[in-house]
């Protein structure tokens, strides 16, 4: 798991495809060890903060708002 976290933090930000795949590997490893809090903090919250609910489809907007409320509350 730490290997995936390190790979993600040291990846060049312009290598978007690599960042996505490393994020998925890290998320999967966190889920496999049931480290929900770390998965939430490292992946879900970061992803949710990059989404702008006003530019998404209504169903995704509802999901984003619901996830934010669950994670923050």
Plain-language structure description:
The protein is an all-alpha fold and 73 residues long. It has one domain. Helix content is 77%, strand content 0%. It has four helices and no strands. The radius of gyration is 13 Å and the shape is globular. The N and C termini lie far apart (27 Å).
| Mean pLDDT over the residues | 80
Helix content: over 70%
- The coarse overall form would be globular
The ordered H/E elements are: HHHH
Total of DSSP H or I helical runs spanning 4+ residues: 4
Percent of residues in beta strands?
under 5%
Report how far apart the termini are.
27 Å
Largest sheet: none
Q: Count the domains.
A: 1
What is the number of E strands?
0
Secondary-structure content class: mainly alpha
Radius of gyration: 13 Å
Q: Uncertain regions: pLDDT < 50 for 5+ in a row?
A: none
């Amino acid at each position: 798991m730490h290997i995936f976290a390190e790979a993600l933090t040291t990846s060049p930000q312009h290598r978007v495809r690599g960042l996505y795949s490393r994020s998925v590997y890290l998320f999967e490893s966190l889920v496999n060890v049931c480290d929900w809090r770390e998965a939430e903090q490292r992946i879900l919250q970061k992803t949710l903060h990059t989404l702008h609910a006003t530019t998404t489809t209504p169903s995704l907007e509802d999901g984003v708002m619901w996830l934010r409320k669950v994670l923050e509350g």
